[in-house]
């Protein structure tokens, strides 16, 4: 079997997950890593065993010994990289969100249609085992017609203040809401047609991170379902987990509650209080397999390229997602509900 | 000590709680009960040991041997009874909501100001031990400035379909939202200034109860806090409790989560699945004391009349409450956010 | 009504609860307080408004203006005080455990039989609203015949290391196991006939408190039920509550789980991590009523004396309790199961 | 790469998991299936695509085109099959428990030592992502020295009454306790040296399944830790999951609580009450990968054979496990604690 030759762009936390996965999967070979910071690129080359380290993504996507690239750079930098890679007819796995403006996302959709490369967005919650089951239940009619719901995907202040260097260039809406809007579209198999949102700032700005504290909104879907959504970056650092992810749907025949992060399946009480550990995102496996939905999602991209399996999320999903997030921002700015064409 | 002579109007579930309380408290004496259905009135007279049973509230409030009355009739019938009682200078303990239109609530505010009787609204969640603590925490600054929150007070379909005979004349918004809006005003010690709401119908109508299935809304408070609120009557009957009450507030110094009904403090697994039993609403006591916050609230009315203690919730609270609920209905009807003067 | 004239012996945390209750209940009058530490006695006299402060319990129980006394001193000091009070024909409300040896408990049983005073043990969990419901469910046959169960009543190290000055003279078994054994006897309405126990020490001793870390045991009841019981004083201080109380019973028709302390009905995330607040032990009331099961239990003693209501727990309950705890210690020492006559 | 040629013995629920895994893993090829019931064997051959279906395990293990076998037959039938396979120098993956008597387990240990085949016991909870983390935490010293704990692995009556055809030939102790004892040995990296147990029967016998209802026991480990353990088959069928798995360890520096099955990460409320769905045992993956710890464990056997990775659990683990279970039965029969050599 000829292996898929991979390049990973972005040598941060997530790029490392991509590199690890391409090293483990039997169908792929990690060839090159790329980061604008040469030191980071070099360091990742060494830790991952990639053959090359580059600082210029253009140089990477033009190489003949690369079949496909992962884009794991900050949200707002995705577009030119993806466009360049698609133009070079490389397959692309992009971290979420696809892009941070509708215009950019539309360009990418066009470029994807014109390219011989496939484009997948790494909406890994589509293979989160809890949420994948919720989708199956909903799509099989187990809860009947979904009528209303509530969804939270929020972080403690640790994320904007300590984890993300580029928090001020993003927000809980783009960083977390992009996941949550996709999860809702995926589970309901439906599109958002109208949003109303309220936002506030102050806490993060006071802490030196110039972005919104949170967005609260109400999403109306074409099929009639109505869902409240919270994306906040100011949850207390005393939360038992740095992410609180909850989703609940009420249908006319039943109800489902998903709590991937605060369920207490694993509770740790050591110096520093009660903490809930993650046990589904990344899980231990033998050295020739990947474990956990975060890596499984990357594996699905390989399936799509190598075996022509369906893309987990394609460019149109990325565009629809961006449209909803942009509409939420527009609603929060205007104080009026916004319809999505 | 001369005992406060009480009349209870409305011989349903809640009127029975009032009657029991007035029988137990040392400061009160249950004199009369009243219901438009003579059979029910008579039956309650017998079970409660009241001296009289009447079918006409006008007759009750005009009696000289009555000092105070409880109004425990359906929501939409409160206004004329309260007005009559206040006009007769009786003290009045009214079940919530005070009234179902702003105009009615305003009339009651005027009548209360003109009467020698005191008027209290039985917003018993103000003495719910969980929520009372939340208020204390918030008002003491423990979580800093409240920034955002989420609140749910919803019922399974059991309530509109089987428990309430007059569900079609009310809705989850009026029946449950009245509690929740009051709890939020009480805890935040703040007023709602703007609301946006979405409502849907279909499930209850299909089941023969002609009212709304739910209201989802976003409440903005004068002090800046923003809260999503759900009031639904279509939760699955398979829920472990027929009521799901949750409240969470995120401040700039901390966070509080209250879950008075679904916390699993008492889980019962017998024929029919897993159920969570209530243990704070009504609790066992010796025969000369009342137990649980539902009865404590009634006791607070007696304190206010007998010892001039502060009213737990007064006519202005009832008016503010009604204004918010009416604004939610207006927003849901118009599709636009509504400001509250 | 002539008021019951009360003396409270022991001016610690719990004595304060007794004093407060006797000040609030309409049937009682707090006359005197007593503590071997004169400063504490005097301070409590001032805060409680009692007429007298004494340092000698003999002097207290011989006064003619005292009808009844509360014994709220450390566990191991109860016996002589109770005996003196009963000999003086005073009514006695004793904190738990009644006594710390079977011989002492037997003497008290004899003295109670010979006295004109009534003796109640303050096993307040009998009126814990969660556990009271569990008893009702079990005794009504709701779970059928109880077959097996598990019970935990344990504390974090905060209690032996920081809260209790006399921890070295007690243990989790006597301090907490006394409650739990009583709760099990009460709920099952049955007697323990055989115990096996294992104990260890080391953590508390290393921290300067010379007592056992925990006892784990298996209790067999006359009616056939078998229950594992844990009483530990070395839970992590990072627990969300300083007490972890859980009780579960499996019957042949159903199952009940009670979680009075770790249920998360009220979760507080402020400086210092996630904490679960108590909301059923003591709850807010108007100033003329008591609230919460901790005070209700004291009220039941007054009911028993003033209205001849049944004692919540009598001397025989105290004796049976002490027998079980002593047998657990004997089993842990011998490594063999111990039968209780 | 030459593929490992597999035979699966036992065409029940678990054998199907083995067959599926060997079909998916790139290193293995499912060659034959075997069941004493010819119809079942034939059916599994068809569904799995195996080349052969046999009814005689001796015939299977003597084939030259088979490198390794899975033993997924009922507990009490393992020994002769394993012995035959080892004698034929095949690699063996045995379902748990290894054997149901110490003597049998000892024979297997000898046979494994003499064979060129490797023997692994499928204690899949060693790769349960929650429990694997608990082991890592404990072995890294995160909770300090483990002092006491509690462990439950129990089923509702659904398992003995409806799921297992051979329940009367096993018990909750052998079926579930085998897992739990292994998990405790694995996490603590320590051996049980003394047990005391109580058992009862009645409920299952009344329902026509002639075995014990439950075993409750106290396990003492060589390193000093003491753990209560419950294995019951009579939990209420109204439980939200048919298995209740909980494990808690208290160390002198911290505490861990694991709740793999009742954590409510995914709650389903549809016809029939509230149910918690599994989301870690088996999880969705692309068609060339396995997902969930139940299958990962089978993958570890392949790793051990193909890459000489360490066995997840070997014959000595199986023997130690059987010794503890046998000692528990001996203690329950004698009423005395039993030391394990």
What's the number of structural domains of chain A? 2
| CATH overall fold name of the largest domain in chain A | Dihydrodipicolinate Reductase, domain 2
Overall CATH class of the largest domain in chain A: Alpha Beta
Biggest sheet strand line-up of chain A = 12-11-7-10-9-8-15
CATH architectural name of the largest domain in chain A: 2-Layer Sandwich
Sequence of secondary-structure elements of chain A: EHEHEHEHEHEHEHHEHEEEEEEHHE
Rg calculated over all Cα atoms of chain A: 20 Å
Total strands of chain A:
15
Largest interface: B-C, 49 and 49 residues
Mean pLDDT of chain A: 96
Shape label of chain A: globular
Helix content of chain A: 25-40%
Q: Describe the oligomeric state of these chains in a short phrase.
A: homotetramer
Class computed from helices, strands and strand pairing of chain A: alpha/beta
Q: Describe the biggest sheet of chain A?
A: 7 strands, mixed
Let me know the CATH homologous superfamily of the largest domain in chain A.
Dihydrodipicolinate Reductase, domain 2
Termini distance of chain A?
45 Å
Proportion of residues in extended strands of chain A: 15-25%
InterPro entries (chains A, B, C, D): Gfo/Idh/MocA-like_OxRdtase_N, Gfo/Idh/MocA_oxidrdct_glycsds, GFO_IDH_MocA-like_dom, NAD(P)-bd_dom_sf
GO molecular function (chains A, B, C, D): nucleotide binding; oxidoreductase activity
Organism (chains A, B, C, D): Ferranicluibacter rubi
Pfam family, one (chains A, B, C, D): GFO_IDH_MocA_C3
């Amino acid at each position: 079997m000829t292996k898929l030759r991979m390049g990973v762009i972005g040598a941060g936390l997530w790029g490392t997950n991509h590199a690890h996965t391409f090293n483990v999967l039997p169908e792929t070979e990690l060839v090159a890593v790329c980061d604008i910071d040469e030191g980071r690129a070099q360091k990742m080359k060494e830790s991952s065993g990639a053959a090359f380290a580059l600082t210029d993504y253009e140089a990477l996507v033009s190489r003949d010994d690369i079949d496909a690239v992962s884009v794991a750079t900050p949200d707002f930098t995705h577009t030119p990289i993806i466009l360049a890679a698609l133009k070079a007819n490389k397959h692309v796995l992009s971290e979420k969100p696809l892009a941070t403006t509708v215009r950019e996302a539309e360009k990418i959709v066009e470029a994807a249609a014109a390219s011989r490369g496939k484009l997948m967005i790494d909406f890994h919650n589509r293979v989160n085992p809890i949420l994948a089951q919720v989708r199956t239940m909903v799509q099989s009619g187990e809860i009947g017609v979904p009528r209303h719901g509530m969804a939270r995907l929020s972080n403690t202040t640790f994320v904007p203040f300590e984890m993300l260097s580029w928090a001020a260039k993003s927000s809980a809406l783009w960083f977390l809401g992009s996941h949550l809007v996709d999860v809702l579209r995926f589970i309901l198999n439906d599109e958002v047609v109208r949003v109303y949102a309220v936002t506030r700032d102050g806490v993060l700005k006071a802490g030196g991170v110039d972005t919104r504290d949170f967005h609260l909104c109400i999403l109306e879907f074409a099929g009639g379902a109505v869902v409240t959504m919270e994306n906040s970056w100011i949850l207390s650092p005393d939360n038992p987990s740095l992410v609180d992810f909850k989703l609940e749907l009420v249908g006319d025949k039943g109800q489902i509650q998903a709590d991937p992060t605060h369920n207490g399946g694993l509770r740790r009480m050591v110096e520093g209080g009660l903490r809930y550990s993650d046990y589904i995102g990344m899980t231990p496996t033998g050295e020739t397999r990947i474990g956990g939905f975060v890596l499984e999602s990357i594996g699905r991209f390989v399936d799509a390229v190598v075996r022509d399996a369906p893309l987990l999320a394609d460019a149109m999903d990325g565009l629809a997602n961006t449209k909803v997030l942009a509409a939420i921002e527009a609603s929060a700015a205007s104080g009026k509900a916004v319809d999505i064409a």
